[in-house]
């Protein structure tokens, strides 16, 4: 069985690495912030001291990191991944990054005789913990075929998107829809709440009609309960929308709805909500209408 290295033990990474361990894989782990690996060590993981050490001990390295700058540090920094890459290895990045960076990573890996897949995921914390993520993958079919079993240990579906960078592009397009859906949900809830309608009744209506969505299913109850424990943070959604805005500009695609959603998440971030779940963007509307979106105050 191939040895796996996992770098990045945040909200998503911990659940993904845990599923690899539960399914019998040998996993070494590293996180830039210490103290995140105790649960995984209990499941049999080996914690190592740097991306270099993890890469040197592995056949396949998976990264799940927060942003482009952090990815650059993990791969190209002192004691980084590329300093330890060997010919024949496969590197998989499941972060949400710019397609430009994904192409740079693929080119650097190829120059070292390794394969690189940009394989971001859809599905937030519950899907990471439950092993039901969906991977959208850019890179060679041969490289993907060699790690299908690894991806299916963490997810329920693997969708090839095309050449390197295609996974990253697909993820930004996908999260553009997620961000717009979230804002649409809270805006509709604001209209209903200001009009005196109970939020729970309104969410039941939404899920029974043409406005039904996975976003309403996941975020509606959180808003009703005023519970913004993180499944996917507001600051990460804003980061993704910013990346998508840059991508759409480069592709010359008009995106008025993306820009409106990005602005609303910027408002939420300015209110200090960045570390909360993305559903907390609804708090901006609560401030504007002077009441809770649940309609119960």
From TrEMBL:
GO terms for molecular function: 3-hydroxyisobutyrate dehydrogenase activity. The keyword Oxidoreductase applies. Residues 3-162 form the 6-phosphogluconate dehydrogenase NADP-binding domain. PROSITE patterns: 3_HYDROXYISOBUT_DH. Keywords: NAD, Oxidoreductase. It comes from the Bacteria. Coiled coil: none annotated. Its EC number is 1.1.1.31. InterPro entries: 3-OH-isobutyrate_DH-rel_CS, 6-PGluconate_DH-like_C_sf, 6PGD_dom2, 6PGDH_NADP-bd, HIBADH-like_NADP-bd, HIBADH-related, NAD(P)-bd_dom_sf. Gene3D superfamilies: N-(1-d-carboxylethyl)-l-norvaline Dehydrogenase, domain 2 (1.10.1040.10), NAD(P)-binding Rossmann-like Domain (3.40.50.720). Residues 165-283 form the 3-hydroxyisobutyrate dehydrogenase-like NAD-binding domain. Belongs to the HIBADH-related family. This is 3-hydroxyisobutyrate dehydrogenase. It comes from Paenibacillus harenae.
């Amino acid at each position: 069985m191939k040895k796996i290295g996992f770098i990045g033990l945040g909200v998503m990474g911990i659940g993904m690495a845990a599923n690899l361990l539960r399914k019998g894989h040998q996993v070494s782990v590293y996180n830039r912030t210490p103290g995140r690996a105790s649960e995984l060590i209990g499941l049999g993981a080996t914690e190592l001291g740097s991306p270099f050490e993890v890469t040197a001990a592995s056949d396949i390295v998976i990264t799940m990191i927060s942003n482009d700058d952090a990815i650059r540090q993990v791969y190209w920094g002192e004691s980084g991944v590329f300093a330890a890459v060997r010919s024949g290895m496969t590197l998989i990045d499941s972060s949400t990054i710019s397609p430009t960076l994904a192409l740079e990573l693929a080119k650097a890996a190829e120059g070292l005789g390794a394969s690189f897949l940009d394989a971001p995921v859809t599905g937030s914390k519950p899907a990471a913990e439950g092993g039901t993520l969906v991977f959208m993958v850019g890179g060679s079919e041969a490289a993907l075929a060699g790690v299908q079993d690894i991806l299916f240990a963490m997810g329920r579906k693997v969708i090839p998107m095309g050449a390197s960078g295609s996974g990253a592009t697909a993820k930004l397009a996908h999260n553009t829809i997620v961000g717009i859906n979230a804002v649409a949900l809270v805006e509709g809830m604001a209209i209903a709440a200001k009009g005196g309608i109970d939020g729970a009744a309104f969410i039941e209506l939404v899920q029974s009609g043409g406005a039904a969505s996975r976003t309403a299913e996941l975020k509606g109850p959180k808003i009703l309960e005023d519970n913004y424990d993180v499944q996917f943070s507001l600051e990460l959604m804003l980061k993704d929308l910013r990346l998508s805005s840059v991508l759409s500009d480069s592709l010359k695609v008009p995106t008025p709805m993306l820009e409106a959603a990005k602005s609303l998440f910027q408002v939420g971030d300015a209110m200090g909500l960045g570390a909360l779940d993305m559903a907390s963007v609804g708090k901006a509307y609560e401030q504007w209408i002077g009441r809770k979106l649940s309609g119960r105050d």
